[in-house]
C-alpha cells in the first residue's frame, strides 16, 4: 500500500512538472512575438523637466525588447549679466523592459527642448 502511494505521488509530481514546463515555454513564446506601442511624457518636478517613457502591448505596435527616454534640455551657462547663454544637453534614461518605466530629469537652470522614446528590437 505504501509503495502504491509513493508511485502515485511520484506520477502526480511528474505530470505537474511537465505541465509547468509547458506553461513556461508558452509564456516565452508569447513574449517573443509580442508587439508594443511606446510613448513618452514630460512634466515638471520641482521646476525641473522630467521625462518618462513606457510601452504597452498592442496588436498594431512593433517588436520591442527594451526602451528608454531621450530628453534634450537647454542648460543656461554663464553668470554675468550679458554672458548667459544656452547649451543643448541630451540625457538618456536607463534601458528598461516593456512593462517598466524609464525616467530621466534635467538639471536645475535648464529648459525643456525636446523628448522622445528610443527602442531596441
Automatic annotation (TrEMBL):
Give the start-end ranges of region Disordered. Answer: 46-65
Look up keyword Signal and say if it applies.
yes
Which terms are listed as keywords in the entry? Signal
Q: Which domain of life is it from?
A: Bacteria
Instruction: Give the signal sequence positions.
Output: 1-26
This chain belongs to the protein called Uncharacterized protein
Q: What organism does this protein naturally occur in?
A: Streptomyces sp. R28
